[in-house]
């Protein structure tokens, strides 16, 4: 009697463990193809069902159950470069609209559970070829990152804290059973792509090259299982400042109808599936005169994120100023900009690096904060400012929050930024643009 027939199937992992124990047996002897319900879950158990044919499998070291969650390596020295025959030219920097213009080339790296990572290629930017049954099109098996390359006043090109993007992308991949990768190897390949496309990096202050690493499941298979095939690709887009005419504070709507994430979910990962559900609520609040949703959680209405950004609240606490951001509790995306702002603020508090114009009595907190606390701070005059943070905008100031039928008014400075966000933003941008030396700024070389 089979495991399923006996009713002793307690979990997917238990069954897969049984098959892993008998891997040598399965690849040594001819076995019949499974049928019925067993046939449907067979690919998930074997991870790559192509490795279990009606006969002998010669790839003992690469076959069924080969992928263990540990990264397999691809080698940058094997990179193939296919130059475009129809190169475009970078448009004038003043005409750039975020996410609309793309460079001549892209990086692609295929993966399969049989072969591991394949040959990396830098090839002409263009359409991808996908089967209509590709798992990404049915089950949202897609992750991505957002990072930037900058050109300093001397023409030197750098990336800002790319190690954090690589770490987060690997974490996202593992969460949705996509293959993990060697971070250093991928970063080398991204640097080569940037070097090839270096003429697309604007020279004007505040401009950059936005880089979008993405991974998708490409196996042609209708069924919920880890994909046996995937594609990692990287595209680049020149961008200008998010606020070209100065900072413009935005209005938020603190929605109590929809949530962005929940405990035990995927809010801490950069998955495509996290973003599409936010579009409809955003359209609704736009009709009400608000730019973005302020995502809340629980009956206490804890603040979590702003649109697609992390968020910060600044409060008066007696003779001190407190910078508050929600903790990384599994619902909050661990943003690179968020971490950078916190690090700079904590360096100021510790005296490691004093930031001009920040108060001496300064508190940096990662803690839960509710809408009730924000309401009370506004009523008592203790609400100093509120802003979002992210790779695209860096800092996005807020001037009001719609909540339960009323608006909470948030102070802003004369130029749109508040007294705390402005000096920290200046320090952060200085490190990104190379005017302030920093280990966070990683050179891009050929």
Automatic annotation (TrEMBL):
<dbReference type="InterPro" id="IPR001544">
    <property type="entry name" value="Aminotrans_IV"/>
</dbReference>
<dbReference type="GO" id="GO:0009098">
    <property type="term" value="P:L-leucine biosynthetic process"/>
</dbReference>
<comment type="similarity">
    <text>Belongs to the class-IV pyridoxal-phosphate-dependent aminotransferase family.</text>
</comment>
<protein>
    <recommendedName>
        <fullName>Branched-chain-amino-acid aminotransferase</fullName>
        <ecNumber>2.6.1.42</ecNumber>
    </recommendedName>
</protein>
<keyword id="KW-0032">Aminotransferase</keyword>
<keyword id="KW-0100">Branched-chain amino acid biosynthesis</keyword>
<dbReference type="InterPro" id="IPR043131">
    <property type="entry name" value="BCAT-like_N"/>
</dbReference>
<keyword id="KW-0028">Amino-acid biosynthesis</keyword>
<dbReference type="GO" id="GO:0004084">
    <property type="term" value="F:branched-chain-amino-acid transaminase activity"/>
</dbReference>
<feature type="modified residue" description="N6-(pyridoxal phosphate)lysine">
    <location>
        <position position="270"/>
    </location>
</feature>
<keyword id="KW-0808">Transferase</keyword>
<dbReference type="GO" id="GO:0005739">
    <property type="term" value="C:mitochondrion"/>
</dbReference>
<dbReference type="InterPro" id="IPR036038">
    <property type="entry name" value="Aminotransferase-like"/>
</dbReference>
<dbReference type="Pfam" id="PF01063">
    <property type="entry name" value="Aminotran_4"/>
</dbReference>
<dbReference type="InterPro" id="IPR018300">
    <property type="entry name" value="Aminotrans_IV_CS"/>
</dbReference>
<dbReference type="InterPro" id="IPR043132">
    <property type="entry name" value="BCAT-like_C"/>
</dbReference>
<dbReference type="GO" id="GO:0009099">
    <property type="term" value="P:L-valine biosynthetic process"/>
</dbReference>
<dbReference type="InterPro" id="IPR005786">
    <property type="entry name" value="B_amino_transII"/>
</dbReference>
<keyword id="KW-0663">Pyridoxal phosphate</keyword>
<dbReference type="InterPro" id="IPR033939">
    <property type="entry name" value="BCAT_family"/>
</dbReference>
């Amino acid at each position: 009697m089979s495991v399923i027939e006996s009713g002793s199937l307690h979990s997917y992992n238990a069954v897969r463990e049984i098959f892993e124990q008998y891997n040598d047996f399965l690849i040594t002897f001819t076995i019949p193809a499974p049928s019925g319900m067993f046939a449907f879950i067979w690919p998930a158990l074997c991870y790559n069902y192509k490795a279990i044919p009606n006969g002998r499998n010669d790839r003992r070291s690469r076959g069924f159950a080969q992928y263990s969650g540990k990264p397999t390596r691809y080698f940058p020295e094997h990179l193939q470069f296919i130059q475009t025959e129809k190169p475009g030219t970078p448009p004038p920097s003043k005409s750039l609209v975020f996410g609309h213009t793309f460079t001549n080339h892209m990086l692609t790296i295929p993966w399969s559970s049989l072969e591991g990572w394949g040959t990396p290629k830098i090839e002409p930017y263009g359409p991808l070829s996908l089967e209509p049954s590709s798992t990404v099109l049915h089950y949202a098996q897609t992750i991505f990152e957002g990072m930037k390359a900058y050109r300093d006043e001397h023409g030197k090109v750098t990336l800002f804290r790319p190690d954090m993007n690589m770490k987060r992308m690997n974490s996202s991949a593992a969460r949705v059973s996509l293959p993990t990768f060697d971070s250093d190897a991928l970063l080398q390949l991204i640097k080569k792509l940037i070097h090839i496309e270096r003429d697309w990096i604007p020279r004007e202050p505040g401009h950059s090259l936005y880089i979008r690493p993405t991974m998708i499941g490409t196996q042609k298979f209708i069924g919920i299982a880890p994909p046996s095939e995937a594609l990692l690709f990287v595209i680049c887009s020149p961008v200008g400042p998010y606020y070209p005419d100065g900072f413009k504070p935005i209005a938020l709507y603190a929605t109590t109808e929809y949530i962005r994430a929940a405990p035990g979910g995927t809010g801490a990962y950069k998955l495509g599936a996290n973003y599409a559900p936010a579009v409809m609520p955003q359209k609704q609040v736009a009709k009400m005169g608000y730019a973005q949703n302020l995502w809340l959680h629980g009956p206490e209405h804890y603040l979590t994120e702003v649109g697609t950004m992390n968020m910060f609240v600044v409060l008066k606490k007696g003779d001190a100023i407190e910078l508050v951001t929600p903790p990384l509790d599994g619902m909050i995306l661990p943003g690179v900009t968020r971490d950078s702002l916190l690090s700079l603020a904590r360096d100021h508090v510790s005296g490691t690096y004093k930031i001009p114009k920040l108060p001496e009595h300064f508190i940096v907190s990662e803690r839960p904060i509710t809408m009730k606390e924000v309401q009370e701070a506004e009523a008592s005059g203790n609400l100093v400012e509120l802003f979002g943070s992210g790779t695209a905008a860096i800092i996005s100031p807020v001037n009001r929050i719609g909540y339960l039928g009323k608006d909470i008014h948030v102070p802003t400075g004369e130029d749109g930024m508040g007294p705390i966000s402005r000096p920290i933003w200046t320090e952060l941008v200085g490190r990104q643009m190379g005017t302030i030396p920093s280990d966070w700024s990683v050179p891009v070389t050929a």
